[in-house]
Amino acid sequence: MSTQPLLEKLQLGDLELKNRIVMAPMTRSRADNPGNIPTELQATYYSQRASAGLLITEGSQVSKIAVGYINTPGIYSQEQVEGWKKTTSAVHENGGVIFIQLWHVGRMSHPDFHDGELPLSASALNPHEKSYTFEGFKETVTPKEMTLEEIKQTVLDFKNAAKNAMEAGFDGVEIHSSNGYLFHQFFNGTSNVRTDQYGGTIENKARILFEVIDAIKEVMPENRIGLRLNPSLNGVFGMTMDEETIPTFDYIINKLNEYDLAYLHLSEPFTDVSKIPFAEKEIAKRYRPIYKGTIIINSAFDQEKGNQVLKDGFADAVAFGKPFVSNPDLVERFENHDPLAKYDTATFYTPGEKGYTDYPSYQEQELV
Predict the structure, then answer these.
(1) Model confidence over 251-280: pLDDT tens digits?
(2) Partners of residue 132 on adjacent β-strands
(3) Which of 21, 31, 153, 338 is the most exposed place for a label (fewest CB within 10 A)?
């Protein structure tokens, strides 16, 4: 491909992105301090990758009850806000644009994170997965079905987190409503068996998401709000697709057209869904004609496939995850067609600089 669509500019609401390469949100477990506060380490990591058109941070919990993994940063305390200011300042100094991903894991947690209390979810259904605690992997438990008051509080937690994100200097937020976490647990009929206004019908199962969007837009511009969805998630974190799964996402994505969001971040299937009759195998292709705003597509794209999906018109930008771990200069490598460095999976979630901020750029590598 003589010209690369990935390297073209993109208007994202009132933000101009210098290219269409997005750094996908990736948990890296480096906030290894009692307050789960981002430090200079996160500032270095994200600023190294600021040549991306858009950086989306790792999932950051909106409250203490939202946590489900060790050493993940939050955005609910003033100390966390001050910590994140180091990252946003460093990214902006390097000409980057950065959104924070707002996260609540729901049932994908463990009582070890909550002083022995049960994690919360749409319904009291155990995902029968494993949670990584400070004592290693432990079996998940049956969560507590959220009361109406707890749902109301969760909506307020997301609103507060968005307000904190603006104070911390982020350019926007991404609501993590994907990958088997809290919102996804409400969407899915195998994890939500409620009979009140948050269960039963498709509209009811999606209700909490739109309540959160409506709450967040009270404290920040609507066109600085992004959203992530994974419609054909199956066999991951206890999620099982049924006949209503895709119609539920069709409803959600159609309704999102009523908002002026920054973008919709979609994931292609994480697993082979070809034998599931009611699964959608090509997410970008299905939802491009439905959603009228900006679409970011994600999941196992390389440079060639990324350029092709943009050329075909099925998405407006492409999010890359693991390639950004070991290639802080991924944009420049794509631009110059340089080979990519391999990542070390053993250091994905370990504390410290190793496997985090010590990957050299291609230019630095060549000088060694």
Answers:
(1) 999 999 999 999 999 999 999 999 998 999
(2) 137
(3) 153
- Dihedral (Cα; 320, 324, 328, 334), 10-degree rounding: -50
CA 46/CA 171 separation, integer angstroms? 14
Structure confidence by residue, pLDDT tens digits, 132-158: 899 999 999 999 999 999 999 999 999
In the Cβ-directed half-sphere of 13, how many Cα atoms lie within 13 Å? 18
Mean pLDDT in residue range 27-52 = 98
- The answer to whether 367 and 359 have CB atoms below 8 angstroms apart is no
Contact 100, 60 (CB under 8 A): yes
3-state secondary structure of 11: strand
Q: Could you identify the residue written with the tokens 């208007």?
A: 11
pTM of the model: 0.97
Confidence grade of residue 367 (pLDDT, cut at 50, 70, 90): confident
Percent of the chain at pLDDT exceeding 70: 99
Parent domain of 299: 5-367
SS3 269: coil
Q: How many Å apart are CA 106 and CA 120, to the nearest integer?
A: 5
Strands 136-139 and 130-133: antiparallel
Rounded CA separation 268/314 (Å): 12
Alpha carbon dihedral 239, 269, 19, 325, in 10-degree steps, equals 70
> What does the block give as tokens for 167?
């104070």
Hunting for tokens 């959603």 — which residue is that?
291
Give me the residues paired with residue 16 across strands. Answer: 11
8 Å CB contact between 104 and 92: no
CA distance 161 to 5: 34
The pairing of strands 54-61 and 225-229 is unpaired
Q: What is the CATH number of the domain that holds 256?
A: 3.20.20.70
Say how many domains are in the chain.
Answer: 1
| Averaged confidence pLDDT in the chain | 97
User: What distance in Å separates the CA atoms of residue 109 and residue 182, rounded to the nearest whole number?
Assistant: 10
User: Active-site residue numbers?
Assistant: 181
